[in-house]
Amino acid sequence: MGLRSRVLAASIVLALIVGAIFAILLVAIGELRDSSAAARHSEQVLAAANRLERRVIDLETGLRGLLLTRDERFLTPFRSAQAAVPPEAKRLQGLVANNPEQMARAKLLAESIDNYLKGYVVPEVLHGQVRTGSPKAIRVIGEGKRRIDDLRAQFSQFITAENGLAETRRDSADSQARTAVLLGVSGLVISVLLILAFSGYLTRALLRPIARVATGARRLAGGDLSARVDERGPAEMGELARTFNVMATSLEENRDQLESQNAELEASQGELEHAVEQLAEEKRQVEVLHRFGERLQEHAELEPLAAAALDDLCELARCEVGALYARGRDERTRDGATLLAAHGVRGDRLPPRLDPGEGAGGRAMQERSPLALGYGESGLRVPAYGHDVLVRAELHVPLIQSDRHVGVVSLGRVRDEPFAEEERATIVALAGQAAIALSNVRALQVARHQARINRAVLETANEAFLAMDDKGEITQWNSSAERLFGWRPREAIGRPVADLIVPAEDRANVRTEFEGFLRTGESRLVGRRIEATAVRRDGSEVPVEATVSPLNLDGRWVFNAFVRDITARRRSQLHLQVQNAVARAMAEAATAEEALPRILAALGEGLGFDLGAYWGADGDAHRLWLEADWSAPGVQGRERDESTASGEDSLPTRAWTTGHVVWVEEPAVVAVPVLSGTTTLGVLELSSAELRPRDEQLIQVMVYLSQQIGQYLERKASEREAEILKDQFFALVSHELRTPLTSIIGYLELVLEDDDGLTDHHRRFLGVVDRNARRLLRLVGDLLFVAHVEAGRLALEVGEVDLRTLTREAVEAARPRAESKELTLEAAAQEVPAMAGDRDRLAQVLDNLVSNAVKFTPQGGTVTVRLAAKDGAALIDVRDTGVGIPAAEQDRLFERFYRASTATERAIPGVGLGLTIAKAIVEAHEGTLEFDSIEGAGTTFRVRLPLRPPPTGSPSAERLRGGVSL
Amino acid sequence: MSAQIVLVAEDDEDILDLVELCLQQAGYEVVTARDGEEALRLAGERRPALALLDVQMPKTNGYEVTRRLRADAATRGMAIIILTASVRDTELARAFDAGADDFLRKPFSPSDLAARVRAALESEARL
To answer: Could you tell me if A362 and A408 are in contact, meaning their C-beta atoms sit under 8 angstroms apart?
Structure first.
């Protein structure tokens, strides 16, 4: 239970007890009061009774008086008494109502009084005619006295009783009072005791623990960290005590810790002091070195540096004599050192060079550790005061740099004081610094020398050379760079290379690449040959080739770049490109008309012109006609129609008449005559709005190209002529051969139709004539067909073709022949969808293949023709068991006029065109014609024709070149 | 019904006779011309229903005759068949460009000829 609850409970209990005590006390006091009241009451009663008695007595007295004297005056008290007595009697009764005995007495008394009054007084006294002095009067008076005595006795009884009561009550009251007092006192005592107990409890529960804690705290404060507090105590008090103890314990521990630390600190303080002393010592040394080093830095040349170093060393080391040997500027391979400085002794008295191992200094160098020589070991004498004095103590300290000896410093003392350890250490440190300084200066001098050489080389180099630092700023710029870019070195060095020679639009890119390289070590622009456009000082652009080499020096990048002006190379490349483009145009175009615009485009785009034109010469009319023109994209083309001719004074005309290139610079127009042999076929004209200075190299290229173009045009013209001639020839042959045949065949037909008058012989003869005429006609057709195919023209009449019908017809047409050779001729033709094709031609193919099969199969063999549709194509097989085609000849089978030996040997008729034509027809239908053959066993020809849906509507002649157009 | 008039223009006598014979046998009345000029004249005079024109003719070739016939309102509706020995695509295209309705290759069979003429006349009649 918590402290608060306990206290609360105790308080409540205390309060209750005290309350109870007071309650009892109150009760006792109450009773006391009652008793007192009762006692007082009795007094009252007594008083009342007495009063009543007196009245009665008064009454009686009065009566007596009356009786005696008959003085009416004696009635007054009687009247008043009469009046007052009953009520008082009543009152008396009332007063003793609480005591039945007294009540009874009072009642009796009252009655008696009443009786007295009514029974005696009134009748006897008042109304009884009693004379005064009479015996009656005496009797009445005697009765009255008797009655009064009686009453008085009752009164006395009553009063005595009441007195007794009163006394009792007074006693009671006294005892009540005593009780009350007793109760009060005891109550008080108890309360006090309880309160004391309570406070005792509180004290014990609260105050004592608190006091303990307080004491403990005080002791803690006083420094006694061992103070602990009794942890007894209720709830929070105990908690408090415990906490206090914990705290005290912790404090104690801390204190202990602190004390131990303190001890340690004190211990280390001693060390610190020692260390501080050491540091101070080192600091002094460092300062010495530092000052020494600073002084060394003031010198940039080798000898002065050596001299300064040596002088300082001698001073610091308190030596009178000294010599410093170190690698000189020019020594590269030799290990030795040259005398650079001497102190206190003339240089010529010392050896000019020391090699490792030579002498004390050399030994120090070789062993790379200081060598001290004392009295007797050294041999150097120095002049002093007119005679030479022996150097008594020597110290030779090698100068080491990066673990290599670069020299030695020798110090000597005349006085006899050997070099102490600390002195040696200091001198060694100083020598080390000197070594570094000397090497640095030497290296610097070597580098400078080298740099001068490099610079000279670069200066005289043909190529532009520039160097940049890692900020992209130019650090070197040779005279070739100046020539190329127009900037003097003074103007270029320090400027960012991007701002100087990179065109504005490329700068951002270059910077990004540069930064990328610095970050990643890689870049497209670095470490390889790059072609780019640079910009000169005057703003003109120049194509260049550059090689940028990065070099990482001491963690920083530097960039060396060689830059070449490749304007000439570019131009040559361009010209070559243009030539190639023109050649390509000429090769790819089928006709001169097609080629010319392309040639112009190649020239115009390649050479950067805006407009181009080819003017053809019409020798007869002495005019140039515009045959082709071209304009660059975005440039408005020339107004032209077929009749545009070049004006008489125009540049093209001038080029034509003079036969030379005409070049106008602004606006740029170049007119080049196109010659074939000595004839000028026409003039090429290229123009552009901007200025273009006369370029001899370009002119040469143009002349060369114009020759090529001239030859091409000439060739094309001849080709066209040849074409025309060929066409004319075809037409002629076709017409001239066919016309007579028309008559022959036509009339023959008429004759054969008109049966009458023809004998069988006639009919047979005419049949022969007819057959041969037709054969002749077919031959003419084949020849012309082949010729057309060769010329690349093939006209197909495209209509609807039913292959099945054609197959059957071909087979049937060959049947007579087959039967005459007793061949088995079979056809297996499936239903094949109608396709688009030239019916006559395809029939020709089938006829050819089937008749060949029959022709080439000897007696008794088999010819099978199959037709099927598969995957959107028609497949036709013509298989025979004939003589076959020798393997060696199979490649040539489709050649014009080629006849296999198997055919010629057996004198099988044929011209050798059939297969050529068949293949051409099949391929014109986008199909394939192939065969397999084994000599002596048979041959199978396979035709594959894609099944194109036939065209709707009437058949019409389709123009094509070796292919079906659908 | 009177026989329809067919004009034949051909410079080869034999062929001309042949054609005339065929057509007469087929029941047509035949008017012959030996060159382009004569053909045009006769076309205007006789107003044939169909003209068979050889291509290769002196003075005016078959194409030119075709063009002229087509240009003239009087003869515009005439059926025209071109006779040609050529198989060249360009030639055939020229025939149709000029305005011919059909062409017939030489050599032809007489029955073919009659059939073509009939077909051309029938299609012309339908128009």
So the answer is: yes
